[in-house]
Design brief:
Number of helices: 8
Distance between the termini: 8 Å
Structural class: mainly alpha
Strand order of the largest sheet: 1-2
Strand content: under 5%
Radius of gyration: 20 Å
Low-confidence stretches: 162-181, 197-207
Length: 207
């Protein structure tokens, strides 16, 4: 049983998490990724510790964390977080939720940055299927997804990649031409989360 005192404590801690999250958003706006990560990490820790169930607010904080890690050059950390976020959206809304399509696209962007085009293509195929079903054939988002798929396939056709024993990637074709012609990862970045001040303490009741 949760006592009223426990509920008040949880509510207070969630208010602290809101403040920390908003401070993190300010640093994101200023492109201060290291500082943003510090505030967002603590906000997410508090939200996970004081919410009985996973909420969209905590997922929003997690998304901000993943994006900040990516922008700070921590691709593996960002990839792991986006994969966790995907599972969470799946549990909340089902595998065909549009949130899953958005997150799969974010995962693909990280994979492109790492040079893993085959895995990126698989993620984009899933996103395309969801968007076609949810948004319709004429959706601008679907068209953007299909353009991205075409670019990945074209890149794979021109410059096949293989995974080395060290887990890195290399082109079969070598030389200056290949180095200059490969897909520019800067064109494909994870979607920047909405920098809104959502509150985790809103509409929460404790009994």
């Amino acid at each position: 049983l949760t006592t009223e005192e426990d509920g008040n404590h949880d509510q207070a801690m969630l208010s602290v998490a809101d403040t920390l999250s908003n401070l993190g958003l300010v640093h994101m706006e200023n492109l201060e990724w290291e500082e943003a990560l510090g505030y967002l990490s603590e906000a997410y820790r508090i939200q996970n510790s004081n919410l009985d169930v996973l909420t969209e607010v905590a997922l929003n904080t997690h998304d901000n964390l993943a994006y900040s890690n990516y922008m700070h050059g921590r691709q593996e950390a960002a990839l792991g977080m986006y994969e966790e976020i995907l599972l969470a959206w799946h549990d909340l809304f089902g595998e065909n939720a549009i949130e899953c399509a958005v997150t799969r696209t974010n995962i693909a962007c990280v994979l492109i940055k790492q040079g893993d085009y085959k895995a990126a293509l698989g993620q984009m195929r899933h996103a395309e299927k969801i968007e076609r079903g949810k948004l319709g054939k004429r959706s601008r988002r679907l068209q953007t997804t299909q353009d991205m798929i075409d670019c990945i396939q074209f890149e794979m056709m021109r410059f096949p990649w293989e995974r080395t024993a060290a887990g890195e990637f290399c082109r079969y074709m070598c030389g200056d031409e290949a180095a200059e012609a490969h897909m520019d990862p800067s064109r494909y970045q994870p979607a920047r989360p909405e920098c809104t001040s959502k509150t985790s303490s809103q509409n929460i009741s404790f009994s």
